[in-house]
UniProtKB/TrEMBL annotation:
SUPFAM superfamilies, alphabetized: S-adenosyl-L-methionine-dependent methyltransferases (SSF53335)
Alphabetized PANTHER family for the sequence: 37S RIBOSOMAL PROTEIN S22, METHYLTRANSFERASE-LIKE PROTEIN 17, MITOCHONDRIAL
Entry's Gene Ontology cellular component terms: mitochondrial small ribosomal subunit
Described function: Mitochondrial ribosome (mitoribosome) assembly factor. Binds at the interface of the head and body domains of the mitochondrial small ribosomal subunit (mt-SSU), occluding the mRNA channel and preventing compaction of the head domain towards the body. Probable inactive methyltransferase: retains the characteristic folding and ability to bind S-adenosyl-L-methionine, but it probably lost its methyltransferase activity.
Name used for this protein in its record: Methyltransferase-like protein 17, mitochondrial
Main location (coarse class): mitochondrion
GO biological process: translation
Keywords: Iron, Iron-sulfur, Metal-binding, Mitochondrion, Transit peptide
DNA-binding in keyword set: no
Amino acid sequence: MAAVSYVASVVCRKAAVVRTTCKGISTAAQPHIDFLKGEVHRKHPGVSKLKTLRLPETLQTHACQILHKAQVARLTDRANLLKNFLWSRKRAFENVTLQKKAMSLEKELRERAIKKGYGLDEQLLEEQIRKKVLFELRRTTYRWTPLKYDEELGLVYMAARLAGCYAAVRRAVNEIKKRDPLFAPQTLLDFGSGLGTVVWAAHSCWSESLKEMVCVDSSGPMNILAEKLLKGIEERGEPCIKQVYFRQFLPVSPKVQFDLVTAAFTLSELPGVKDHAPSSCSGWCKTKLCNIVCETLSSSSPDILFPFQHNMPQTEKFSYLILTRKEPTDVDTEGVSWSRLVAPVQRRARHVHCRLCSPDGHLQHIVLTAKKHGRDVYRCARSSDWGDRVPIIPKDDSDIQTDSE
């Protein structure tokens, strides 16, 4: 999970994290380990956060021109409604889950009827139970509905989510550039490309190496809108980023692979897990070097609308996964365990609370102090933010114990 600040984005709720507690780890007997590599604490090697992001000037100009020309009715209200809908959207219930829930309700109702001793006909009782089960399922089951992005809804989506999507993808892309400076993709495939924010974010990092970018989205109107964002409102205008191609379907041949494959805010648009797996597998099969999956965390949304004429930074909270087929260049130093912050650092007087994901995949809750963990480790943790990595120098495994939330 990560967070990134950008102009006119959304503010999200905190995500709960199951934790383990790590007792104080004394480093008095530990030799000095130079994990800072000459950097000051606030710029230690594990920092990957970006400053407050803004949309590229050309992208913002083109988006403003498109919205002004379109004159969408009630754009502000509709954009806010769409943001609220997307942020509060839940997964669709799987059939297996619904069946288990129905069986549990049926059992509960039957036991209740037997306990009360109703002398009902067996067939009539079954009919009543069936009606009550269906009523409860309809009342309590979330109704997942797909969104069909036509021309007008695409414009509303652009007003609501352009900046947030760009900021999140830019943050994930920056992580790759930070961890593997030598990575220079020549080809890119963006599955579920939407407004084309991945193209803009990738171009900002690898403009010199990228030679071909293929955007795939099932919505034809959304592809047209993404292309307009590259060209502007002039019909014969030249795209400001070259070699970008739009498709409605993935390349069929398994031999067609790309250095970088992305799926940003795409899986949440699919009905259920049975649809996620084929899409994820297809993306991985198309991956030659690196694969990025980025999705939204639950959130609430303020009344902020594009175009962004003010300087009010907001926070986009999202989760992302980066998979690679090669061993990336790393900043790890021997003797240091670099753990990922999965929640904001809670800074207190002379100590900080860090919720971390360790390299072995375990979640930890560590209270760091300068006395117990060393000044450098403590200052680095205090200067870090959600999504960064912090250095931990453990003494031995006996210092870690499991604790309940």
